């Protein structure tokens, strides 16, 4: 693993080695993989969460980025209440779309059902959730009720801090000054065949390629193959080549990744800025279904810098 031997960013290495050394008092945190992810025990998400426990969940999120809560029999109100601790709830433009089997009538709940008749499943590619929004989702809360009887249907996650920090110094310096355009049509029209409502367009936004996370002060890679279309400061050929390099960099470095194996009634909560994810559709013709609630940052009009 040459990255760990040769990487010269001592501050990042110190953060890497020192994470989660201080004990937790109200929750049990069990890492899933070295790069990111943890199983959280000692929390009942159907009940009000005491302030000290909520503070430790926030800390675990900053340290581990992806948190898994198992054996949680949640209703939609439970899921929305927990997500509401982390910001204003997001309303997805496809939440009630007939294109998504199992879609909810609640615009704050993106429900889906994948089975024998499905032509696609939501999230079957590396992406940040709805990165095309002007104000990107900060955190996502995915609750899976039904898992395939034969197994499968895992979700892959990647640590975008490490994806950025493992790039060479000259390349990091170059991309620090760049932005990228994220287009909802690239994901939903090209991916699902969805069309926006008459007279409207799917959202587009321009975000830094390597923003600074307000919670940690660390840069992270914020481009993905699902929504990101081009880098406006470059020619089309240069943009295509650089985006191809960056998205392949995320995909191929499995050392930066963790894999969550779902069990029924599991809620997984992740930092949607510092993390990308990919839902693995390897269980056809069996079924899998659930719902996602997402939250903006607590500050109004929070944006990536």
UniProtKB/TrEMBL annotation:
Name the SUPFAM superfamilies on file. Clavaminate synthase-like (SSF51197)
Task: Cite the entry's keywords alphabetically.
Answer: Dioxygenase, Iron, Metal-binding, Oxidoreductase
Could you tell me which InterPro entries the record lists for this protein?
AtsK-like (IPR051323), TauD-like_sf (IPR042098), TauD/TfdA-like (IPR003819)
**Protein name, UniProt field:** Taurine dioxygenase
Q: Which Gene3D superfamilies match?
A: Clavaminate synthase-like
Q: What is the lineage of its organism?
A: Bacteria, Pseudomonadati, Pseudomonadota, Alphaproteobacteria, Hyphomicrobiales
Query: What top-level branch of life does the organism fall under?
Result: Bacteria
Q: Name one GO biological process term.
A: sulfur compound metabolic process
Recorded GO cellular component terms are:
cytoplasm
To which protein family does this belong?
Belongs to the TfdA dioxygenase family.
Under the GO molecular function aspect, what terms does this record hold? metal ion binding; taurine dioxygenase activity
Ranges of residues in domain TauD/TfdA-like: 29-293
